[in-house]
Amino acid sequence: MTSFRDLPIRRDLREQEPYGAPQLSVPYQLNVNENTFGIPEVVSEAIASRLGKVVPLLNRYPDREFMELRGALANFLGGDLTPNQVWAANGSNEILMQILQAFGGPDARSLSFGPTYSMYPNIARISLTPYKELKRLGDFTLTADYVVDEIRRENPSIVILCNPNNPTGTPIGRDVIAAAYDAFDGILVVDEAYAEFADGLSVIDLLPGRERLIISRTMSKAFAFAGVRLGYLAASEAVVDALRIVRLPYHLSALTQAAALAALEFSDVMLANVDRIKVQRDRIVEALEGMGLKPYESAANFVLCAGFPDPQVTFTRLLEQGVLIRNVGIPNTLRITAGTESETDFLLAALKQTLG
Ligand SMILES: *Cc1c(COP(=O)(O)O)cnc(C)c1O
């Protein structure tokens, strides 16, 4: 049998593996930071009804510029954003890909501070953009002085800051982001995939007057809509115009647009469980400390915890009890998604038993 490595595949891809967070059907899936609360019935009905109206029209291509959805997203984000400052794609992964396709490439240089989101280097590679990951400071924090010095030294064309950071949960101060923007002439992407879990952390209000700033968001996490694949961004109109050059025609299906529009009409219902999830996150931090472990501060819906002598052993023992968490490869750590109260009950009991 032929392996893909025997094919004339791009040389830089030959040694790669596909993205592979395990997708296992176990009772407690706390590994990819989804909102584990289901979609409320009133919203599922609204989505089904809206999809029903679109289905007979699927012989036609979807609205290529999806202005109605961009209007709804601008409205959701608030402030003075216009639909022309908003863009969407199939998950914020595709948003990041389009950003690197438009502003990256072989002559560009992209920079981030790790450990951070594992897809940044992958998306950089696929878009042929050189990528460098500098180390974060103690407890995965960043300061304005450090970030500014490193950006000046590296002179990148694109900087990606994940706020709060995945997989560590660390929030970044707005002073750091404002200083990073002023430190170079390139594109600053702030990935706010978890912003709804972090009161006051979003820097969307920094957009006016900052034409090179991009705020990336997603409906996959707090918004409980990971299955739909809807990521979006807010930026200057010029940035959005640049992305329209690289996107594939009709990239956002009519079904996706309809589902997202229906869900956005119920944004308060869709986000209703965010506070409950934050309570569970804080409860997990406290309980892990009580077990003598070292959880890091988190402003997201997950907790990275150190103190596991052999994380893979703990991971496997939890899995045997039906609990799937994530080994992100940072030594002695595991990452746990905060979900419902009963999920936390079970997780903490299982972990206690595992640690004996
Ligand atoms: C989950 C995640 C995303 C992307 O999610 P999509 O489902 O593609 O929108 C982006 N950035 C970070 C940091 C994430 O954790």
Summarize the structure in words:
It is a single chain. By secondary structure, this protein is of the alpha/beta class. Helix content is 37%, strand content 14%. It is built from 12 helices and 12 strands. The chain has helices spanning 41-54, 67-77, 91-103, 119-126, 144-154, 174-182, 237-246, 254-264, 267-270, 274-290, 311-320, 341-355, and strands at residues 28-29, 86-89, 110-114, 131-135, 158-162, 187-191, 213-218, 231-234, 294-295, 302-306, 323-324, 333-337. It has a 7-stranded mixed beta sheet with strand order 2-8-7-6-5-3-4, sandwiched between helices. The protein has a 3-stranded antiparallel beta sheet with strand order 9-10-12, covered by helices on one side. It has a two-stranded parallel ribbon with strand order 1-11. α6 links the parallel β5 (158-162) and β6 (187-191). α1 packs antiparallel against α8, α3 (91-103) packs across α4 (119-126) and α3 (91-103) packs across α7 (237-246). The protein is globular, with a radius of gyration of 21 Å. The mean pLDDT is 97. The chain binds pyridoxal-5'-phosphate (PLP). Pyridoxal-5'-phosphate is lined by residues 33, 91-93, 117, 162, 166, 191, 193, 218, 220-221, 226, 231. The site of pyridoxal-5'-phosphate has 14 residues, from α3.
